[in-house]
Task: inverse folding
């Protein structure tokens, strides 16, 4: 993505900025400065929405000013033609923008960043053409424009001056708080997994497209609010006020301010308007020149923007401050009493909410040893090459089943077919009695298949606990509103997820003191552990592990082995790809050997690893001349 | 042709926080064929990628004939180190001839080396106008080797040569490599899981464990080192 | 009916101009990994340079010749100044840089070339035409078609017969492997920019006399060029011309029979429909879906 780190702790800087904006009129009561800051706040309302979209969800929009236009025109048209009360007109305009964002977002989610950048850029130009044309002229006045009806509250006009300044400030504050709330609730965290890696998000049961569309809608509605205020400030709407370059400017404001920070785009907007104004006094066209140079310099040399610069300066200045002002480094939360208790029992006991929890209990009760996972006649062909050729695997409930074989034997392909990432050419995969054909990746996860990847794809800018927590939700469903409002049912759901995340981390014996650390600062061994915890936090019945020992030292392999044993003890069936034979001996109950996409042999680890053919496959006999 | 030795001294490589290579030292002399064995994830491929600059090095030195090699793939290649990557890196939409033309650089292109290579790998000459993507794995491996050798490198790096090759194709490939390396004075470093093949054909085999390479005597310790 | 045929013929000629802008986008996308949003404004800026030279009194054709050289140099400077530094920051970072360039070049044109825009650009192609039966055909359209076919042919020959062309193909298919073979990827990127700088000027010179010379002259062309690139398959250098003709003919028909305000919208619909139905376009390879 834009190589920017998204930040979670942005509340304080945002509040500080808002406070400055509240107090500023007391310091400088100049009309000119006030109108600059008013415009800056109006743009900032759109820019923070864009930050949620780009900085936190990883989607580009170079056409965000379209929603400003929708807000401005729908509101004015409803007031003028339908004689609607202005408050209702604003609400209608924002809802209209949300609807458009929903439709467009649904179309755009399939595209990667370039496609969506292009499509939104295009959209802005099309919208401008349509606004200038005659087709909507009855409502919008076409090229000649339309007047914005005057609005006032308690005798104070909102069309400019103090009224508009404080109205913009209130809307910006509300918008910023919604955005900050959003990035803290489940939906916002899920978006960051989507930004990091869509495949991993799907494997965690996150509905990728839905989270993306949500970000579009939020950003679109905020921009429409900004558009209503923009209409007040203009007093008269004409198409050139909504030129395509406005959309680019808006993106530039967010990027210069610093994406992934909410506060950054506000700074960016203030910077943009103050600099523009200062320069336009000198030479009218040179302000655009200077701002584009600033944008280029920021993107090329300093991609974290002004907010990143501020962070850097703060980190340098902090040691110089008196003790009282220094924020202490995050200390581990005090409550860690359960770590000493029986982690397996706690983990198993906390499965009442899960629909698939029964499976875990049944095995512990000594249920019969039926197969949980059955792979029949599985074939996967790429062109003429068969990555998997008529593979049969049967994994008994409660077992740790290892898949071994040389590079290129088809081990990861097998896991991909089981988790639904790669549709098989032929054959079937069943979990229990259920055939998995046609079931999507995230639905398979919801049915109880968890997995990790060879390269753990944790969200680098989230801490360990949050990374695991996002894997702990039974379902990633439900409306966003209850989450944003913090309704009791949603709070309970989050509380459960948090508890289950801790239990999962306890189960695999992850150090309690390292749980507040950002994933970016973990060692590879720790990342693998956290990846396992994330995959089991939702209590799957089957856990697929892809090379959990690759690239680890002997000690770290021991840690992973203990984690796998803990997972087994909790009643989760495990299918693990491993190369480290000692590890396989240590943890596996059964072992399947793959070679050239075919099953070479199946059996207990001792038998299989003693088999002459297997030794040859591993150590190699092909070139014995 | 005067060969030059490849020398890795106390090499360290870190990839996204993971310490993959920690203090690796090894040596490939002119005309020598040297093996690097180790289990999956041990860092064999990473070692080759660090030599050619596809991944950054965090410490230590890579030298060719005493001069440090920069960590930039094109400059390493132009300095005389050819890298046949894992999966062979054939351009499937180009013909065999075009693939080989890419490997041949104007400076060294006197053509005689190409003729010697074609004599050694007659299939490559025969398939010159075929799209490389249509070839079998063994044929592609031949093309990749010829492409790596045609510039007349001082050192040839070959990653996972046995991958996807039938035993016969593998035998042909490695024997050709031994012969050409010896006669042209090219030092060859072969990475493979197949340690039997390595110990059969190589002048020396290193075993990569815990990020370091130790010379392996080819004794029965093989299985314990893999299975340990 | 004869009107329709004329509209289609001029649509084809316009489509080839679109194609050449799209060609610049696709060529850069393949060789540098990023489709440059600033290609249109590079064309615009270079056309302004030619205009200034001509106003300086050295005649239009010498101005064009000098402009070609300066266009290449200009594009090289764009690459070295904005895209080459810290080029390992990922494609989306580079994409945003091109958008910044888009803004920068327009602002530079406004600052350097005055506020009296738009200007009348001298006619380069003859006004006359001839009739085939009921259909009027303009020489300008035919010459345009000829110029663009010649450029397309020259590039095709470069890819087919030269080592540079082979290296460009290799880089576009797998840059790391090409680097392992000693291909100097950054030099090729620089070369690609020089070539695109010259091609862009051709597009600018074909557009400017028909419209007026202004700093937003190329905006619609850039969008049509993107649509052509997507329709043709983002990775197909030949397909982009076919895509350009499709876009040119469709938008010409729409503006004649429906209304000019929907021309851009119709291209947008073409783009979205392509992405929905056939994301790899008419000629792109299905395996490469980097959109």
Result:
């Amino acid at each position: 993505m834009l190589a920017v780190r998204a930040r979670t702790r942005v509340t304080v800087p945002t509040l500080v900025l808002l406070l400055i904006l509240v107090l500023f009129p007391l310091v400088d009561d100049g009309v000119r400065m006030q109108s600059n800051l008013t415009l800056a706040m109006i743009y900032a309302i759109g820019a923070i929405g864009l930050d949620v979209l780009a900085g936190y969800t990883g989607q580009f929009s170079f056409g965000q000013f379209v929603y400003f236009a929708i807000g401005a025109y729908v509101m004015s048209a409803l007031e003028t033609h339908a004689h609607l009360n202005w408050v209702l007109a604003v609400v209608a305009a924002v809802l209209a923008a949300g609807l458009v964002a929903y439709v467009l977002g649904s179309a755009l989610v399939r595209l990667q960043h370039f496609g969506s950048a292009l499509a939104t850029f295009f959209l802005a130009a099309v919208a401008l053409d349509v606004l200038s044309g005659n087709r909507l002229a009855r409502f919008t006045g076409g090229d000649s424009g339309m007047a914005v009806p005057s609005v006032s509250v308690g005798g104070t006009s909102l069309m400019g001056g103090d009224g508009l300044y404080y109205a913009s400030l209130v809307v910006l504050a509300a918008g910023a708080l919604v955005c900050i709330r959003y990035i803290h609730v489940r939906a916002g965290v899920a978006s960051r997994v989507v930004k990091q890696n869509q495949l991993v998000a799907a494997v965690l049961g996150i509905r990728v497209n839905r989270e993306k569309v949500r970000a579009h809608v939020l950003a679109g509605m905020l921009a429409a609010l900004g558009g209503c205020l923009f209409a007040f400030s203009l007093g008269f709407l004409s198409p050139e006020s909504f030129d395509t370059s406005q959309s680019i400017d808006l993106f530039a404001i967010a990027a210069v301010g610093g994406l992934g920070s909410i506060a950054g785009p506000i700074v960016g907007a203030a910077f943009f308007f103050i600099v523009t104004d200062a320069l336009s006094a000198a030479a009218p066209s040179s302000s655009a020149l200077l701002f584009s140079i600033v944008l280029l310099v920021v993107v090329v040399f300093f991609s974290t923007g002004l907010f990143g610069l501020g962070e850097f300066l703060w980190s340098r200045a902090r040691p110089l401050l008196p003790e009282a002002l220094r924020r202490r480094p995050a200390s581990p939360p005090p409550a860690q009493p359960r770590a000493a208790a029986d982690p397996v029992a706690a983990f198993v006991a906390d499965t009442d909410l899960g629909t698939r929890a029964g499976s875990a209990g049944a095995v512990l009760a000594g249920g019969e040893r039926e197969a949980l996972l059955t792979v029949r006649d599985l074939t996967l062909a790429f062109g003429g090459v068969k990555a998997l050729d008529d593979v049969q695997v049967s994994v008994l409930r409660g077992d740790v089943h290892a898949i071994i074989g040389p590079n290129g034997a088809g081990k990861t392909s097998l896991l991909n077919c089981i988790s639904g990432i790669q549709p098989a050419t032929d054959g079937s995969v069943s979990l229990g009695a259920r055939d998995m054909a046609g079931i999507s990746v995230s639905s398979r996860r919801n049915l109880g298949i968890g997995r990790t990847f060879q390269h753990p794809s944790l969200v680098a800018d989230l801490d360990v606990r949050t990374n695991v927590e996002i894997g702990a939700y039974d379902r990633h469903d439900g409306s966003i509103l209850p989450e944003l409002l913090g309704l009791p049912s949603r709070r309970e759901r989050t509380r459960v997820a948090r508890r289950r995340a801790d239990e999962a981390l306890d189960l695999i014996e992850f150090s309690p003191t390292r749980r507040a650390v950002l994933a970016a600062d973990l060692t590879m061994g720790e990342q693998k552990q956290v990846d396992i915890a994330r995959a089991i936090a939702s209590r799957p019945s089957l856990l697929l592990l892809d090379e959990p020992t690759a690239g680890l030292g002997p000690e770290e392999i021991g840690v992973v082995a203990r984690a796998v044993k803990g997972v087994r003890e909790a009643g989760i069936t495990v299918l693990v790809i491993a190369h480290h034979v000692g590890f396989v001996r240590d943890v596996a109950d059964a072992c399947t050997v793959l070679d050239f996409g075919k099953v070479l042999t199946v059996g207990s680890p001792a038998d299989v690893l003693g088999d002459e053919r297997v030794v040859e496959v591993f150590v190699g006999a092909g070139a014995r001349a | 042709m005067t060969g030059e030795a490849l020398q890795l001294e106390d090499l360290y490589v870190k990839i996204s926080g993971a310490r993959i290579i920690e203090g690796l030292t090894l040596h490939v002399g002119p005309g020598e064929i040297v093996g690097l064995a180790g289990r999956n994830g041990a860092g064999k491929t990473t070692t080759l990628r660090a030599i050619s600059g596809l991944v950054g090095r965090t410490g230590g030195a890579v030298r060719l004939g005493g001069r440090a090699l920069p960590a930039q793939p094109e400059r390493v290649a132009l300095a005389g180190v050819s890298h046949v990557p894992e999966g062979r890196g054939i351009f499937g939409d180009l013909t065999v001839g075009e693939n080989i033309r890419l490997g041949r650089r104007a400076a060294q292109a006197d053509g005689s080396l190409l003729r010697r290579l074609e004599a050694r790998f007659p299939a490559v000459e025969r398939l010159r106008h075929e799209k490389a993507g249509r070839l079998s794995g063994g044929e592609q491996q031949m093309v990749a080797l010829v492409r790596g050798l045609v510039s007349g490198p001082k050192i040839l790096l070959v990653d996972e040569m046995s991958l996807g090759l039938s035993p016969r194709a593998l035998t042909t490939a490695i024997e050709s490599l031994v012969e050409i390396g010896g006669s042209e004075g090219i030092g060859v470093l072969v990475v493979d899981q197949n340690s039997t093949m390595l110990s059969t054909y190589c002048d020396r085999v290193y075993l990569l464990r815990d990020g370091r390479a130790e010379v392996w005597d080819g004794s029965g310790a093989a299985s314990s080192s893999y299975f340990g | 009916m004869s009107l329709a045929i004329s509209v289609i013929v001029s649509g084809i000629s316009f489509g080839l101009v679109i194609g050449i802008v799209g060609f610049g986008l696709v060529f850069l996308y393949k060789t540098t990994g990023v489709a440059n949003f600033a290609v249109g404004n590079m064309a615009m800026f270079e056309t302004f340079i030619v205009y200034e030279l001509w106003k300086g009194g050295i005649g239009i054709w010498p101005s064009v010749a000098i402009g070609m050289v300066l266009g290449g140099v200009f594009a090289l400077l764009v690459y070295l100044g904005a895209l080459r530094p810290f080029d390992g920051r990922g494609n989306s970072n580079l994409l945003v840089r091109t958008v910044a360039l888009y803004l920068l070049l327009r602002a530079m044109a406004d600052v350097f070339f005055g506020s009296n825009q738009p200007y009348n650009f001298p006619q380069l192609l003859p006004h006359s035409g001839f009739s085939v039966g009921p259909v009027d055909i303009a020489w300008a359209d035919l010459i345009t078609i000829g110029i663009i076919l010649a450029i397309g042919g020259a590039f095709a020959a470069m890819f087919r017969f030269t080592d540079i062309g082979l290296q460009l193909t290799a880089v576009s298919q797998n840059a790391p492997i090409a680097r392992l073979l000693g291909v100097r990827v950054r030099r090729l990127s620089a070369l690609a920019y020089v070539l695109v700088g010259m091609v862009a000027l051709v597009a600018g010179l074909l557009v400017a006399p028909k419209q007026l010379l202004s700093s937003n002259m190329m905006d619609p062309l850039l969008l049509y060029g993107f649509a052509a690139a997507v329709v043709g398959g983002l990775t197909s250098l030949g397909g982009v011309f076919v895509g350009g003709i499709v876009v040119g003919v469709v938008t010409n028909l729409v503006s004649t029979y429906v209304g000019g305000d929907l021309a851009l919208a119709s291209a947008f619909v073409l783009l979205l429909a392509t992405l929905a139905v056939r994301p790899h376009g008419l000629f792109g390879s299905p395996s490469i879906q980097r959109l």
Summary: The radius of gyration of chain B is 17 Å. Residues 221-225 of chain B have pLDDT under 50 and may be disordered. The first strand of chain B starts at residue 6 and ends at 15. The interface with chain A takes residues 16-20, 39-41, 43, 160, 162-167, 170-171, 174-175, 192-198, 200-201, 210, 222-223, 226-228 of chain B (CB under 8 Å).
